Amino acid sequence: MSRITTVAQLEAIIGRPPAMVMMKELAELDDAGRRMLAIAPLAGFGYRDDEGRPRTTVVGGKPGFAEVESPARIAFATDVDASGPVSFVFLLPGVGETLRVNGSVAERSPGRIVVAVSQVYIHCARAILRSRLWDPVVPAAPVPAVADGPLSAPGVAGFLAATPFLIVSSWDRDGGSDTSPRGDVPGFVRVIDGHTLVIPDRRGNKRADTSRNLLADDRISVAMLVPGRTDVLHVSGTAVITDDASLLADMAQGAAVPQAALIITVERAELRRNQAVAAANVWDRGNRVDAATLAELMALTTRQLGVKKPALRRLSGALAVFSRLIRRVMDATYRRALEKEGYGLATGTRLGRPVRVIDVIRETPDAVTLVLSGADTGFAPGQFYTLIMDIEGRTFRRAYSATSVPGTDRLALTVKRDGLCSTYLNDHARVGTEMRVLGPSGDFRVADPAAAGAEYVLIGAGSGITPLMSIIRTVLAASPDATITLIYGNRTEADIIFAGELTALRDAHPGRLTVHHVLSRPGPGWTGRTGRIGPDHLIYLERAHYYICGPATMPAAVREALTGLGVSSDRLHEERFTSVPAADPEAADSEQAVRTMTVDNVGEVVVGAGQTMLDAGLAAGVPMPYSCTVGSCGECRVRLLRGEVRGIVEDGGVLTCVSYPLTDTAVAITPAEPGD
Predict the structure, then answer these.
(1) Does the pLDDT value for residue 110 go beyond 80?
(2) Containing domain of residue 494, as a range?
(3) pLDDT tens digits for range 347-394
(4) How far apart are CA 44 and CA 65, in angstroms?
(5) Same structural domain for residues 58 and 22?
(6) Residues 226 and 267 in one domain
(7) Domain co-membership, 122 together with 212
(8) Alpha carbon distance 635, 627 (integer Å)
(9) Sorted alphabetically, which keywords does the UniProt record give (predicted)?
(10) At 630, which CATH number?
(11) 501 alpha carbon, distance to own chain's centre
């Protein structure tokens, strides 16, 4: 494998840093550096222990944990056994830029270290933005199989698959230390085997401090973070730099190929809870740096231009007045650069599959059918999908049954006005509207709609017709002689969804489709059945399978009546439309506090205020099971080992997609089966 062994080879690939980049390097803390230290609650910390072994960890726990004794000295509380050269990367929640500080241990006493500062540098935002550290997405990287070696330790491979961000420490020929941030999409750290990792080196400011140091001293240490988790993965060993074309091509992001890569021979890999990360609570959006402070920092950093170049002092002072505008310009520049690299706003994987509305059909004044392109239509008739939509800056998920025939290039979902999301779709969905969809999901289905001689009795009320309509359309098209009896309840004749099509299908398939409408508030000209669906409206067919769908208690009442008629339980299929628990903005403090969820054999996850246990787990890269995400399918059930939650808890299991912790909790992903 091709290796880079000289500075000349390295600079031939990455170039040399621009003068403007080097002008940002200072010998001591200026106003901007001191302000960043006052805000930063965490820092990556690179050091060598008393035995000379390279180490990287995360220190801090609260804003201002690093005390500024003078522009050339900082102190902080820690129990690490650091000596000699050390280095930091200070992190500011919600901010892309980081503060890098290099120096050496000047004093050490029990629980405290004083560092003499020799170099200060504000690092650009690319690493944070690439990783989306403060705005995580659902990781998509598969967990690699690792048979042996340090990387086979419990939880390590899963953490590597989820991490989008790491802090890497290296040392130069004279022993000087440097700690730098690296960020990318989850899974960017590649596992070659139980002893070997590869980290891509993407384009940046061309300082290449880590690579330059490795040419002189191959020892390296790394600390890796996953948003939402309180544990940190510590890795140390030796590293070489490669520009092997095939390896780099395999790590391309879109069309952008890394310029080089670090190959780490791992001697130690340890995953453990980090007290500083837990105490700092950096994953809570409420702890992010506010806009006013960000503008202040921008003004201070702009003035840095005049520190080394007095000729620029007047210009830098004038530019500081326009700090907010400069911030917006810089953010736009970063976004354009990342989009060219293949990142953009869609970095990573968002929950669900993107779909587009290609037709809107008004069924009744309060019901609309949305025809979607881009969905997986390999469903069984009767199943549902989960629509993910953004309404006024908030993301909502709601389940809607398919009403179309499976296996086509279009998916039809029919939505009756009832609640915020269904009302929004009725009033605002248009051709071209884009959403995301999960599914198909659900056990309410006809397994073999083409079966000859089958008999079905379908019983629905209101929007309960939606999965039944898919069954009707599919069975009539697929089976040569199956018969269907539909008993359909509504308030008024105007509320009957698919009224015209049901009549047309009945007429087109005489003897195969029978339709009985039941109205609870019939008009004066109505001659059909009346009341609410009950025993008097039901029929008994010895061979038929019964499918029941409706709101609230209707399915249970119909099931009880059918059981009384002699229908066996194996021929009864039930779907109930219910609302699921949601975060309550007016809830008690116990429901709005940040909690921890310990996942058995994985680690500790931070669950933010108003966040479901599922969302927190997925955001933290935990392989949580799920399907519908709205509490209907049961796929997200896990075993509740400890703690209290508000949501759906039954038989020792909790449906994480609709459950919120009231206390710190512990769960096991191995599901609790109903009845355990």
Answers:
(1) yes
(2) 455-577
(3) 444 678 899 999 999 999 999 999 999 999 999 999 999 998 888 777
(4) 13
(5) yes
(6) yes
(7) yes
(8) 6
(9) 2Fe-2S, FAD, Flavoprotein, Iron, Iron-sulfur, Metal-binding, Oxidoreductase
(10) 3.10.20.30
(11) 41
Contact 99, 36 (CB under 8 A): yes
Q: DSSP readout, 202-255?
A: ---SS--HHHHHHHH--EEEEEEE-TTB-EEEEEEEEEEEE--HHHHHHT-BTT
Q: Tell whether 436 and 570 lie within a shared domain.
A: no
For β-strands 165-171 and 83-91, DSSP reports them as unpaired
> Which CATH number does the domain housing residue 474 bear?
3.40.50.80
Q: Name which of 72, 104, 99 is nearest 177 in CA terms.
A: 104
Q: What is the CA radius of gyration of the chain?
A: 30
What's the rounded Cα separation, in Å, for the pair 656 and 315?
55
What is the per-residue pLDDT across 36-72, written as a single tens digit (0 to 9) for each? 999 999 999 999 999 999 999 999 999 999 999 999 9
Spatial distance between the Cα atoms of 676 and 664, rounded to a whole number of angstroms: 23
Name the DSSP class of 534: -
Q: Give the span between the Cα atoms of 457 and 537, in whole angstroms.
A: 12
How many folded domains does the chain comprise?
Answer: 4
Cβ–Cβ < 8 Å for 87, 169: yes
CB 437 within 8 A of CB 425: no
Cα distance between residue 292 and residue 296, in whole Å = 6
| CB atoms inside a 10 Å sphere around CB 37 | 24
Mean pLDDT of the 14-42 span: 84
Q: pLDDT tens across 590-600, in order?
A: 556 889 999 99
State residue 486's pLDDT score.
98
- Mean of the per-residue pLDDT values for the chain? 87
If asked whether residues 44 and 179 sit together in one domain, one would say yes
